[in-house]
Structure formats: C-alpha cells, structure tokens
Write a structure and sequence with these properties.
The chain is mostly helical. The protein has a single domain, classed as TerB-like (Orthogonal Bundle). The chain is 70% helix and 0% strand. It has helices spanning 2-10, 21-34, 41-55, 59-75, 80-89, 92-107, 114-126, 131-141. Helix 2 packs across helix 4, helix 2 (21-34) packs across helix 5 (80-89) and helix 6 packs antiparallel against helix 7 (114-126). The longest helix has 17 residues, at 59-75. The protein starts with a helix and ends in an 8-residue tail after the last helix.
Amino acid sequence: MLDQILAFFTNKTDIPLALTEDESAAVLMIEVMLADHEVDHRERDCISQILAQRTGESAAAVEACIDIALERRHASSDLFQFTTVLNDQWNEQQRYQLVVDLWRVAYADGRLDKHEDHRIRRVADLLHLHHSHFIRAKAAARPSDGERQ
C-alpha cells in the first residue's frame, strides 16, 4: 500500500501539457456556457465564431480546440490555471476583450442566467480586471433590441 502511495507522488507522467492561450480562452468560454447547467447550441456556435475570428483557423481546427478545452475543463477543479496563462501572456486590453466575448457567449441563447453573470464576474477578477471593465464589457456585448431573440 505504501508503495502505491509513493508511486502516485513520484509518477511524473501525469503532468498536464502546457496550455495555449486559445485553449485557455476556450475553457473560460465553455465555463460560461455550462454555468447555467444547460448546453445550448447557440452558445457553442458563438464560441466557435469567436475562436475562428480570434485565431483565423479553419472550422475543424476550432472544433478541435473546443474539444481539447472541454476535456481540460472537465479535468480541472478551478479556473486559476487558465487565467494564469492569459495573465502571463495578454495585456489588459486583450483580457478585457475576452470578458466581452464571455458576455457574448452568455447572451447567445437569448437570456442571461445569474450563474453566467457570477462566473464572468469571477473570471474578470481572476484576470485582474477592475469592476468597471466588467460593467463596460457587459454593456459592449449586450445585444441590441433587433438582435434579441
């Protein structure tokens, strides 16, 4: 039994691979999509569109990034590892734009859930953004009356 415990702590093969910025951003968008405990195709489509615009990659590459992000999200217990990658690599404007994109995902299904709002607030805090960024991003992403469903 002791050998098994020691083997667990000395096993270096289980170290996760480094996250890319796109994968980290995708995980955070997926986190917002799943915050209301409903998977809506409009939210997933919104994530695909955002990632395609951000990366310029093909639809297949974007879907692969989303699949990797889903796996990483399910394997993690917190968001810190994802926000750390972005805090280390992105400037304040890039992090703010991600929060705008998180709001777009939240609004994609035509309604804003309180859990989505809370999750975005938490991510904005982890990204070291001010509350004013959070509010401005929400207003920037809010659909106009013509876009609402």
